[in-house]
Amino acid sequence: MIDAKSAFGILADGSDETTKIAAALAAGGDTGTGDEVYFGPGIYGVNNLPAIDRLVNFRGAGNNKTIFKNLSSTARMFEFVGLAGSDWNSAFALPGNFTIDQNGCTGNAVELNAMFSGLSDCWIKNQGGAGYGVKAKNMTQGQLKNVHVTGSTNGILLDTCYYPYLENCSVERSTGVGVRMVGCASVNASSLYLDHGNAGSVGSNSPELLQIEGCTTVNINGLACEMGTSSNLVPNRYFWVLNSSNVNFNGGRINQYASESSSYMFYSQGSSTRIRGFEWFENQATMIFAGVSGDNESIALEDITTYLSSPGSRYGLGCWEGRTGRVRITNWTDRYQVPETNIHAFDTVCQQVTSKIVISSAAGAKGTYINCREVGGAGAASATLIGCN
Predict the structure, then answer these.
(1) How far is CA 53 from CA 33, 103, 178, 288, 344, in A?
(2) Residue range of the domain that includes 331
(3) Which of 49, 191, 196, 225 sits 20 to 30 Å CA-CA off 170?
(4) CA–CA distance, 345 with 356 (Å, rounded to integer)
(5) How far is 76 from 134, CA to CA, in rounded Å?
(6) Is 195 helix (H, G, I), strand (E, B) or coil?
């Protein structure tokens, strides 16, 4: 192990020590082993650090103990690229156990542009502009473990990544997109926490907490969302799945307190999406748990429990009328005894739903409803009802 302070005379007092930090990383990295470089407690000033093109594992002393502070207003903090002179691109250990203070910088905090790159035990704060806390592009089998982005515009971006793995990551108080996945395949994420909080005036049609676009096979196991109370936090879609296939949300809890109007918690557009094992706590205004838009798509809701706090126009599911998408609902339980709470659905198969189901028009009455509490609305007479009240 190389002690960066003693070996390279780094003061870690917040001054610009980019050259010394780069030298320490270069000394610890090679194409074979990747020695550990230790950055002890202190503030390490960085201004446009050269890209890291070698196998090096650098660690700090912990959150808010080892702090890399960005002294540039536009340059990224760390960038990992393909290993120099290698045809297998790269293989990195997981650097981490430190805090990155972006200090309002508009560049990305960390850019992972290598096959096996990753990050662990990292706290990123004060991201400015439209930059991301972590941006990964063309990463294969990369890992993000215990990565936490706080108070940023955008959180984590996975762009054309294959077999990426996220574990115990969070994005809190963001005013932009929390996590965005574009053109990825075989994504696995566990224990993902997303929160707009009371980040400020985000405004109507604000970005999503989670956006999945053009992806194939995404598994998110354990999604938690804690919404704040600001009336300015009004995304049309909190979790948006667009033109993707085999997207699975397995288990989660959503505490949604912000005042919303005609918004969707989950929105599937041109995609096949499955949502299973969720609890939804909501206490203000109109909200739709899941919606679909487009043809030749599907959404499945299984084992959903809702706790809605007061009567009003609340819907479990909304689906655009006249589309050919398939909707399947199994075992939906409304724990709050509010007769006005509805599930609003078209082209649907529902089983064991305790909320009242409203089919608002005859055009959407192609569905089958099995062992549901009550089915009504203009289209109920044309629907297939089995064991319903």
Answers:
(1) 14, 25, 28, 47, 54
(2) 2-356
(3) 49
(4) 11
(5) 10
(6) strand
H or E element in which residue 207 lies: none
Q: What is the CATH number of the domain that holds 203?
A: 2.160.20.10
| Cα–Cα distance measured from residue 314 to residue 61, given in angstroms and rounded to the nearest whole number | 48
- Give, for 323, the enclosing helix (H) or strand (E): none
Please report whether residue 282 resides in a domain. Answer: yes
Write the single-letter amino acid at 62.
G
Residues 6+ apart with CB under 8 A from 277: 250, 251, 252, 302, 303, 304
Which tokens belong to 275?
């949502």
What's 321's DSSP letter? T
187: CB partners within 8 A, 6+ apart: 158, 161, 163, 164, 166, 181, 215, 217, 218, 219, 220
Residue with tokens 């650098």: 58
- In angstroms, the Cα distances linking 371 to 89, 246, 329 are 56, 28, 12
Please give the biggest Cα pair distance in the chain.
81
Per-residue pLDDT of 288-343, as tens digits, reads 677 766 655 678 888 888 776 554 545 556 555 445 566 778 887 776 544 444 55
* Number of structural domains found in the chain: 1
Assess if residue 364 is contained within a domain.
no
Q: CA-CA distance, 22 to 47, in Å (whole number)?
A: 11
Cα distance between residue 40 and residue 67, in whole Å: 9
Report if residue 206 sits inside a domain. Answer: yes
Q: Report if residue 383 sits inside a domain.
A: no
Q: Given this model, what pLDDT does residue 213 score?
A: 95
Q: Which two tokens stand for residue 289?
A: 């748990």
| Burial category of 257 from C-beta neighbours within 10 Å (exposed 0-12, middle 13-18, buried 19 and up) | middle
The Cα 318–Cα 332 span in angstroms is: 14
pLDDT in tens, 249-279: 999 988 876 555 556 778 888 788 999 998 8
> Which residue intervals of the chain are DSSP H helices?
4-8, 18-28
Q: Which residues pair with 204 in a beta bridge?
A: 234
CB count, 10 Å around CB of 254?
Answer: 22
CA distance between the termini of the chain:
71
- The predicted model scores a pTM of 0.88
